[in-house]
Amino acid sequence: MTPAPASRISRRFAQLGEAGEMGIVAYLTAGDPSLEATAKFVLALAEAGADVIELGVPFSDPLADGPTIQRASERALKSGTTLSKVLDLVRQIRRSNSAAREISLVLFSYYNPVLQMGLEEFAGSAAGAGADGVLITDLTAEESEDYRRVLGARHLDTIFLAAPTSTDERLARIAACSSGFLYLISRTGVTGAKDALPDDLPALLRRARRVTQLPIAVGFGISLPGHVSVLGGLADAAVVGSALVSEIENATGKDSSPAAIEAAAAVLAARIRAFKQAARSGLSRRDPLPKHEVAP
User: Fold this and answer.
1) Catalytic machinery residues
2) What CATH number is attached to the domain comprising 39?
């Protein structure tokens, strides 16, 4: 059997590794404040150097998300955003002639909208639209066999969350079910910007390195360039979410005019450039951690 070609996500992380760079994964709630605005934001992030973009599918009961993304989901739902429309947005991005056309796109969703659409239909539509991977926040590795089989048949990466509370055995199980990259939650709790990263994060990263060769992206609480700099030489990517969603809320919460959308896009681009610069400076002053180092 001919092996499946490397995914766009895998190719991007391979390029980053060859260049000795840490990636930036940017999260947006699709449809906040509109899908047209999200398309502009995706372009701005791509042009500014984001390596992967997660498109959050708004959901009415986002248990894993903090107040910032909860409010964004509410705004997106009020604007009429659905999973089908998010897939249409992905299709639109892939058909464009912009810098965003070739960027890695991950659909970030709760499982309910996917089940409502139907797993087979969702996988076919997501792959047909041009999505590269899917992350379901409330689907455990243990319950994912059918999901992984159906998405794998469509060459979609299945990205899972691993938490600080995960045992080494469970980290290995989650990593074995993942493709593209492993999403490592930096701390317990919900999403949201924080002033500092947990002190035990390096130890958590070392534990994860022992059980997987996948790139590791760290998220939850990454909100400042200094956070990204600290991760240099430890993680393969930093996931920035609430900090970007907050900028959108500040710029468009009371005014979603074209001028406000353009202003928000400019702020997002500036934030990504700052994060990318921090990633480079962090790597330049740290010795990279071997991917399979066994910590004492």
Assistant:
1) 54, 65
2) 3.20.20.70
